[in-house]
Amino acid sequence: MGDDVVIPLAELVDKSIVVLVKTSNPSSGIVQDVALQNGQPLWHHVLNLVVNRWNCNTNMIPVLSSTVGLNMMEIRSLIPDRMPILLTGVGAQGGNYADLRNLLNSEGIGVFVNSSRGILYSQSQQPWRIAIEEAAVGLKEALNNERRIR
Length: 150
Prior knowledge:
The chain has helices at 3-10, 29-32, 42-52, 72-78, 98-103, 116-120, 128-149, and strands spanning 17-22, 60-65, 85-88, 111-113. It has seven helices and four strands. Helix 5 (98-103) links the parallel strand 3 and strand 4. The protein has one domain: Alpha-Beta Barrel (TIM Barrel). By secondary structure, the protein is an alpha/beta fold. Strands 1-2-3-4 form a four-stranded parallel beta sheet. 42% of the residues lie in helices and 13% in strands.
């Protein structure tokens, strides 16, 4: 997608626009890691577009994976302090909880964490409602511990 698709969305000031930048699916690299002429991977260029071109109404949210070994401190320095980030791959996919710490803004907030399978398909032997609750509370505690370490 390009300007003709994203800019009309960005102009919806009452909506948040979530843009896939670097995802965790195993074959994502065949597209997202393609090196451009300047040597940067395509995903880095997409992040630059999200931050510097399309975020005219401060309603863009980049999606980053916690499973692909990105330098989150470096990436955080490229993203405005007020721009929220969606961090994926935490939980069943084995993402790094410390990535949260490195992506938090100056107020220690600003990151949404997705962990669908880690919560919905918990390995607990408890009844499903209790297992989901325990998994969600456990994730919250683990993420809050990372925020405190910051």
